[in-house]
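Support case: user asked for a sample of complex input and structure output to validate their parser. Sending the pair below.
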Amino acid sequence: MRIGIDAMGGDNAPCEEVRGALAARQFLDRGDKIVLIGRQDAIRQHLAEDPHWPEFIEIHHAEQVIGMDEAPVEALRSKPDSSLAVMTQMHANGQTDACVSAGNTGACVAAAQMRLRRLRGVHRPGIAIVTPTHYGPVGICDVGANVNCRPQHLYQYGIMASVYLQCICGVRNPRVGLLSIGQEDAKGNELVKQTRSLLKSDANLRFVGNVEGRDIFRGVCDVVVCDGFVGNVVLKLMEGMAEGVIRTLLDELKAMLPGKENTIREAAGSIIAKYDYNEYGGAPLLGVGGICIICHGASSDRGIMNAVRATMDFSKRRVNEQIMELLSTGQRVADV
Amino acid sequence: MRIGIDAMGGDNAPCEEVRGALAARQFLDRGDKIVLIGRQDAIRQHLAEDPHWPEFIEIHHAEQVIGMDEAPVEALRSKPDSSLAVMTQMHANGQTDACVSAGNTGACVAAAQMRLRRLRGVHRPGIAIVTPTHYGPVGICDVGANVNCRPQHLYQYGIMASVYLQCICGVRNPRVGLLSIGQEDAKGNELVKQTRSLLKSDANLRFVGNVEGRDIFRGVCDVVVCDGFVGNVVLKLMEGMAEGVIRTLLDELKAMLPGKENTIREAAGSIIAKYDYNEYGGAPLLGVGGICIICHGASSDRGIMNAVRATMDFSKRRVNEQIMELLSTGQRVADV
């Protein structure tokens, strides 16, 4: 297996990307290679930390870099030699088997869609994240690839994310909920109402009906389906809120338990780690004809390392093959 | 001032409603009255707890009750003598000056829109909540009145919620953010992009641009504008997440600090109280031609009591008058 990494994408590129690649060696099998794509000199400088790098790392030079705030399609057009564009092109050419980026998410989604195309039967790719809860992992799809969703897109997110949770998190026959603003059929916007009937009519899916924001943390479903605008708001809200609530609780506790500051800080650290995107190893763009793992822009070396592990798992557990299979049977039902 | 309360609406009606009304006496001025609307016998039974009730409470009998899960418009049509319908009708007739309900939110919004009409210049009413954060209160509007928003609606939510934060929370010249999925102009769905230019063009508003979910807790704005679908998802997510994060942190801490269970539980209780909807005193339906305060269905007597206080504040600080004033000047700018 050959995994391409956009070495120039993240907020702290290429330092964290290179260090993450070095640390990921533990997850590679014999013969596997990581291809770091980006400015050769900068990459080499950080590789120097580990003299064994040539055993499992290759460098592929790309001169240009797409910034975090650039408009995706325009940036890809004007920077054909950017690390991100080259990374997806190499995957499309068969020079790599997967790609990983902590760069501009919109540009990564656009490049993957253009170069890797879609899996057979998929209408729109969607990004799936897995969030830890008191009751176990919950997958949310889409969290930002597609802000103009149609019911068919959401329905397929239910199928793809189910496969992902089953393959990667070991959740058997995942319960799928549709994010809305009330459990009753009549609640929600037009998109939700139409999606609901598609999800209901597919006997291959374990659809549990509408779920509300609070249900994500109450163990009522394993997969939450939503459009990319709502999903992205939810994703970032969770990030900000975990931080905010914990900070407030710490302030209270410090005042109440003087002398226990360190223990309290340690406990908080362990919770924050549970909500830390660096632990998940990135989010797959489900539905593209390849493997594309998107990392948080602020990913540390640990985040990149875990993304390599996620990439290996994605490939070994044949997520794409299973999506195509479930999609072909599921759609017959939904089309009736 | 006469405040009508739907005594039959909440999950624990009429017990909590009646007790809340009794406890609210402390906020009333001389001559103010609370009118409890609903089944006379049930209301009287709980009023018996306080022999002084006739000094500040009246009962107005209404035979029917609208359930939490009933379809709003149909329920209002088929139950003209429901406590909710009677409550709004009494306000419209001038028999009361405000109304408070912990009942079916959709039915309450529909009844208020039909009976109280809209304030001059308002396109669509929206529900505003105030959430506590580490950096101070943040208002979010709309959280569920309007799931099919147009840019003009969102723009007016910015104006109305600004007035509300200024009048009720004492935030001077509130910073208004538009909830989106990235700070750049190009990010977001069509609704957000169009709303952005309306907000930008109004010199009376302190618009700080797009904000993301995490920014709600980072002190970057005082008012968050969003459509009612997204806002309701956010509201319920916050509710579920505060609970979930705190529970996880408590489990960690209990294991690390044996013997300190009570202190830890106490600290958690004080945080949960900060996020407790019962402390806010309900959310106003901004933009209707009257005062309509909507409470969480699970409101306790404390929640109802605080809603009465919120109602008094809303009236004394002349929120509606100020909305109309800002709306009439603001719109001239936006129409250019």
